[in-house]
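Hey all, quick one. A colleague (J.T.) asked me to put the guanosine-5'-monophosphate job into the tracker so the inputs and the structure tokens live in one place instead of scattered across chat threads. No bug as far as I know, just bookkeeping. Sequence used:
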Amino acid sequence: MINKSDCIFCKIIDKEIPAKIVFENKDVCAFPDINPKAKVHILIVPKEHREGLFSLSERDVELVGKLMVSVAEVAKKFNLESFRVIINSGSGAGQSVFHLHLHLLSPEGFIV
Ligand code: 5GP
Ligand code: ZN
């Protein structure tokens, strides 16, 4: 259980830790992964802290929809036609940051 005040992504969202924010609106923030696994590797996160996919409930339906629409907006912004979206849920599946996030991975495009 990670406390919100110890959460690295909350600190990025609050601009307490530097990151190159490539997309932001009222609900969602996106920035490149510090350790990219593809030519373009962007993390898309809700501004409201949720630990992971496993912690979502009915009240989060709108939040999840907003995340998905943000994927499309980020892909459009960087002219990505082909990409994968991954969510690791739980440490056994490779989740290392316990603030819900989508990995947007693409073999094309670049971040300036
Ligand atoms: P997970 O393993 O939880 O699915 O993904 C967490 C991701 O966050 C990893 O790919 C890792 O490289 C990235 N990450 C961890 N700390 C930071 C950070 O301080 N800044 C950025 N931009 N990415 C981070
Ligand atoms: Zn957080």
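Adding what we noticed when we looked at it: The CA atoms of residues 88 and 94 lie 6 Å apart. The radius of gyration is 13 Å.
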